[in-house]
């Protein structure tokens, strides 16, 4: 049985199509990542799966229960952490946790082992109001609250957005621990570098899934030749690269540009288009400090390729 | 049950930790009652009057003297001809004009048909009707005295309106009105805003994805405001009795019974509003404009319903506060029992049932 089984889910907001018919399955016990930019439909999908929204068409089954018919059953056994910090800011850390324990008809003591590693880090502040916590601590509290009833499936909508890099890393370590406890985790994120931490991912863009596979398979399927290019004037470099006929795509990736190249030269020339040809072209355009290296594709490169 | 208790406690925390809200909730009714009871009063004292008296006989002199010696009026001037009446009003110097008919005493004794015309400035209808009421009351008192002395059958009209509030004291009228207003405000406004806040801050989203029945979420919000409303009602009652001297002639039980029914109506209205909007500000405006305005304007608190155009009178019938204020007046000031306000109780109960039903039907178990 699948932990989550979604078939052709569509959802419109007035005339905007937020989800254009997505289908996927999540296996029990895996970390399934839904990866895509803001506005791709991630939150809408999570709300449909957590019974907060109704889809216009399509079906979704969560742990054997239909999200429309059996919504009460689902609400009992899933944990949900929305993208925005959604706890009571004027209540203390401990009061928040107590409230969530009691509405799920359990106690903090009963499932303390599950949240121990996470909660221990914020326990020194248990009498502080939730609104006065730092971003990373808020996430830990929210996760503790979502876990206190030992959910079968955990839905985490952009849990690491707005969290510092160290806390982000810690957060993913916590998820790996939870996976060991047998909890299925659905997590969405706009950060492509977090994709490798998932067992399988779905790349989502403008309401459609581009690909569903393990991060490794997605990267392996990347067929193009990929170079990383730098020079002294990065913004002009981007424009100049895009004018070259052998450069198929060019995107800015942090402090370098990633380009996909077509190595075929016009008929008559024997050798293929190489680093030297590109360097000559750029020097002609008066760039200096040019660095060109061949690189392996990351998830983001795959996303860009699929999105085109 | 433990869910419910924890959640209700949470609501109390919200209220108690927000000092300004807390202060508002408890101080507002008291400020209102003091403001309305003392400051904004419909009582009028020392109003200037003018007299046109072509008869100048015993009766007219006596009536003028009575008017003059009352605390309400000061005689400003005598007019020599009726033509001056309009002019003197245009100058705005006086509030009331008393015009006697010719041969007043003679007519009164012989035909029983002497006439006095009371003219007031209609641009301020409240003041005008108060002044004319005062004056007619004083004239009536004179006729009464005359009847006693002469033993002659003069026709005397009894003004029913003055029966329970002979000096038209403002507080008598205001206290039930403020009660209606305060209960409506706290129950409807605070409930709708506090539910909208959970939606706006996203906490509703998390709470809905739990085994907690949505109905319980709402009920736990209702409990604190219900409690605070009863405290407020008691405070207003104590203040009205000991500070403004308004009597509680009827039974306390009936007062509380009617109030509790009215609180349910207001809570249901608050729930209805919160099911329409997801934003605190909208909930606030809707409660303030949609509920407070009619309560102030159409419930008879500010303006007598009988003086309204027919269409507004019709609208006033569906305003819960109108029935509540009526019932409270009847019980508190007239001292009537539950049986006499059975109609008001019935109508309010019906409204409560319909509104609670509608708000439960409209209540969203999902985000939209």
Secondary structure class of chain A reads alpha/beta
Known CATH architecture of the largest domain in chain A: 3-Layer(aba) Sandwich
- Mean pLDDT of chain B comes to 82
Q: What is the arithmetic mean of pLDDT of chain A? A: 91
Distance between the termini of chain A: 35 Å
CATH superfamily of the largest domain in chain A: P-loop containing nucleotide triphosphate hydrolases
Question: Which consecutive residue ranges of chain B, at least 5 long each, have pLDDT under 50?
Answer: 156-168
Shape of chain B: elongated
Number of helices of chain A: 10
Q: How many whole angstroms does the radius of gyration of chain B measure?
A: 26 Å
* Helix fraction of chain A by DSSP (H/I, runs of at least 4): 25-40%
Strand order in space, largest sheet of chain A = 6-7-8-3-9-10
List the main descriptive attributes of the protein structure presented here.
heterodimer; A: 308 residues; alpha/beta; Rossmann fold; Alpha-Beta Plaits; six-stranded mixed β-sheet; four-stranded antiparallel β-sheet; 10 helices; 14 strands; 33% helix; 27% strand; B: 368 residues; abc type-2 transporter like fold; four-stranded mixed β-sheet; 14 helices; elongated
Helices and strands in order:
The complex is a heterodimer of chains A (308) and B (368).
Chain A: E1 4-13, E2 16-26, E3 31-35, H1 42-49, E4 57-62, E5 65-66, H2 71-77, E6 78-81, H3 93-103, H4 112-122, H5 135-147, E7 153-157, H6 165-180, E8 184-189, E9 200-205, E10 208-213, H7 215-220, E11 225-230, H8 234-243, E12 247-253, E13 256-261, H9 275-284, E14 291-294, H10 299-307
Parallel strand pairs in A: 3-8, 3-9, 6-7, 7-8
Antiparallel strand pairs in A: 1-2, 1-4, 4-5, 9-10, 11-13, 11-14, 12-13
Helix pairs in contact in A: 3-5, 4-5
Chain B: H1 2-17, H2 19-39, E1 47-52, H3 58-69, E2 73-79, H4 84-90, E3 96-100, H5 104-110, E4 116-120, H6 125-150, H7 170-201, H8 203-208, H9 214-242, H10 252-276, H11 280-298, H12 310-317, H13 320-332, H14 342-362
Parallel strand pairs in B: 1-2, 1-3
Antiparallel strand pairs in B: 3-4
């Amino acid at each position: 049985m699948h932990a989550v089984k979604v078939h052709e889910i569509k959802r419109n907001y007035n005339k905007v199509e937020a989800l254009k018919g997505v289908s996927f399955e999540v296996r029990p016990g895996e970390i399934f990542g839904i990866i895509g930019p803001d506005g791709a439909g991630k939150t809408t999908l999570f709300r449909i799966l957590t019974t907060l929204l109704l889809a216009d068409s399509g079906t979704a089954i969560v742990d054997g229960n239909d999200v429309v018919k059996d919504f009460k059953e689902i609400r009992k056994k899933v944990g949900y952490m929305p993208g925005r910090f959604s706890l009571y800011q004027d209540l203390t850390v401990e009061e928040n946790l107590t409230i969530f324990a009691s509405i799920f008809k359990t106690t903090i003591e009963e499932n303390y082992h599950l949240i121990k590693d996470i909660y221990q880090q914020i326990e020194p502040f248990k009498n502080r109001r939730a609104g006065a916590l730092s971003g990373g601590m808020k996430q830990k509290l929210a996760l503790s609250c979502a876990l206190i009833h030992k959910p079968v499936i955990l839905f985490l909508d952009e849990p690491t957005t707005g969290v510092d890099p160290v806390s982000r890393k810690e957060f993913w370590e916590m998820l790996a621990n939870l996976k060991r406890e047998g909890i299925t985790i659905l997590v969405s994120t706009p950060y492509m570098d977090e994709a490798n931490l998932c067992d399988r991912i779905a790349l989502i863009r403008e309401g459609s899934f581009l690909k569903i596979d393990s991060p490794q398979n997605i990267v392996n399927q990347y067929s193009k030749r990929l170079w990383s290019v730098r020079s002294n004037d990065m913004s002009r470099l981007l424009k100049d690269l895009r004018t070259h006929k052998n450069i198929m795509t060019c995107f800015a990736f942090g402090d370098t540009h990633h380009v996909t190249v077509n190595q075929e030269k016009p008929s008559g020339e024997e050798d293929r288009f190489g680093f030297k040809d590109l360097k000559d072209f750029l020097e002609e355009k008066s760039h200096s400090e040019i660095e060109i290296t061949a690189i392996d594709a990351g998830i983001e490169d795959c996303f860009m390729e699929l999105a085109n | 049950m433990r869910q419910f208790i924890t959640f209700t406690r949470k609501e109390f925390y919200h209220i108690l930790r927000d000092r300004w809200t807390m202060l508002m909730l408890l101080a507002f009714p008291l400020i209102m009652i003091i403001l309305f009871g003392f400051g904004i009063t419909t009582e009028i004292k020392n109003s200037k009057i003018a007299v046109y008296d072509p008869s100048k006989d015993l009766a007219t002199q006596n009536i003028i003297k009575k008017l003059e010696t009352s605390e309400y009026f000061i005689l400003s001037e005598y007019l020599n001809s009726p033509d001056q009446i309009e002019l003197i009003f245009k100058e705005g110097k006086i509030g009331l004009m008393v015009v006697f008919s010719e041969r007043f005493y003679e007519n009164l004794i012989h035909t029983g048909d002497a006439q006095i015309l009371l003219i007031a400035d209609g641009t301020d209808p409240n003041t005008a009707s108060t002044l004319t009421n005062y004056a007619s009351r004083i004239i009536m008192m004179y006729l009464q005295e005359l009847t006693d002395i002469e033993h002659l059958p003069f026709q005397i009209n009894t003004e029913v309106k003055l029966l329970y509030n002979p000096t038209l004291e403002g507080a008598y009228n205001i206290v039930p009105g403020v009660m209606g207003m305060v209960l409506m405000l706290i129950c409807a406004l605070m409930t709708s805003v506090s539910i909208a806040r959970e939606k706006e801050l996203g906490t509703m989203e998390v709470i809905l994805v739990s085994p907690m029945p949505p109905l319980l979420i709402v009920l736990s919000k209702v409990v604190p405001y219900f409690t605070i409303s009863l405290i407020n009602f008691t405070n207003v009652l104590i203040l009205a009795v000991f500070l403004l001297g308004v009597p509680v002639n009827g039974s306390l039980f009936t007062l509380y019974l009617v109030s509790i029914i009215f609180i349910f109506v207001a809570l249901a209205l608050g729930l209805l509003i919160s099911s329409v909007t997801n934003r605190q500000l909208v909930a606030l405006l809707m409660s303030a404009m949609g509920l407070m305005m009619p309560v102030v304007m159409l419930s008879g608190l500010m303006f007598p319903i009988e003086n309204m155009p027919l269409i507004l009178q019709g609208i006033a019938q569906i305003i819960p506060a109108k029935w509540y204020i009526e019932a409270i007046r009847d019980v508190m000031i007239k001292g009537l029992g539950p049986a006499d306000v059975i109609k008001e109780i019935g109508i309010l109960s019906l409204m409560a049932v319909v509104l609670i039903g509608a708000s439960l039907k409209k209540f969203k178990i999902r985000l939209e």
